[in-house]
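Q: Hi! Curious about what Lytic transglycosylase domain-containing protein looks like structurally. Here's the sequence.
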Amino acid sequence: MAARAAALAALLVALAAPALAGAQREEALSHSVATSLRRSVGEVNAPRLVFADPREGQAWLAEMSARLQKRIPDAWTRERLLTAIHYEASRAGLDPQLVLGLIQVESGFKKYAISSAGARGLMQVMPFWPRAIGTAEHNLFDLTTNLRYGCTILRHYLDIERGNLFRALGRYNGSLGRAEYPNLVLGAWQKQWAWTPPAGLNRTAGTR
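A: Let's find out. The predicted structure is below.
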């Protein structure tokens, strides 16, 4: 059974379309930073929508699901993915719509995507990250694991760049100093995923 599962996983990886990712660069981390990142990727909680008003959460999920339908036809799969994206982005202090734009550019929402540089999964995380801040058991093709790593890494780069999103995105893609990738992500965010809560509903709350 284990051999069959491994063979199926290998086949899925082999069939995965290449992704438009650069190469996040492995850099030395201070002990305090490594510890903080390790704690972040190690905390596993069941994904959930994080809204002060549940009606707003349902409105967001319905709207994002409709926009994602052409890429992911199955409604259950879409809603599971969107819930995980919203939770992991909110947990990292990121705008979920930004993360949707990044995933669109990085992998086209292909769970098993692999870039020419070896980056893996929805958010195209490089394989050195589990070695640096995780464990060998962390599978970057697992939906929630990939999102947790990707959001944690982007938050780390935002902190390094003191909130400068353009430069943080460059670091994420391994193209710091060049405009193409940040512009693609920011464009996808604004053109495809921007969202305003319906009138009369509360704004998104932070995670607890």
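A: A fun detail: The two ends are 39 Å apart (CA to CA).
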